[in-house]
Design brief:
Layout: E1 2-7, E2 27-28, E3 31-32, H1 33-43, E4 48-54, H2 58-64, E5 73-79
Parallel strand pairs: 1-4, 4-5
Antiparallel strand pairs: 2-3
């Protein structure tokens, strides 16, 4: 099973919260928001996730890498952000 996750929001309405983090990487209880989604997908049996990121979301790729830590294969698709 596969899933698509959109993590390319710029989130202007969340300023100043997103001044230092991509919106998907905003911490909740010291865990990035996107990590909750990845963990839920993996526990639901999803084997591969396509994560749509914007060009300024290098932190997402750095944190999640290929997804092996969560038992899911992650591939990244680059968008221009909130297209």
């Amino acid at each position: 099973m596969q899933a698509i996750v959109f993590a390319d929001r710029q989130g202007a309405e969340l300023e100043p919260l997103n001044a230092h983090h991509a919106v998907a990487m905003l911490p909740v209880a010291n865990i990035p928001l996107l990590q909750y989604t990845i963990e839920d997908l993996a526990s639901a049996g999803v084997e591969e996730a396509f994560v749509v990121i914007s060009s300024d979301a290098q932190a997402i790729e750095n944190h999640f890498a290929d997804g092996a830590m969560w038992g899911i294969k992650i591939r990244y698709l680059l968008s221009r952000g909130e297209e």
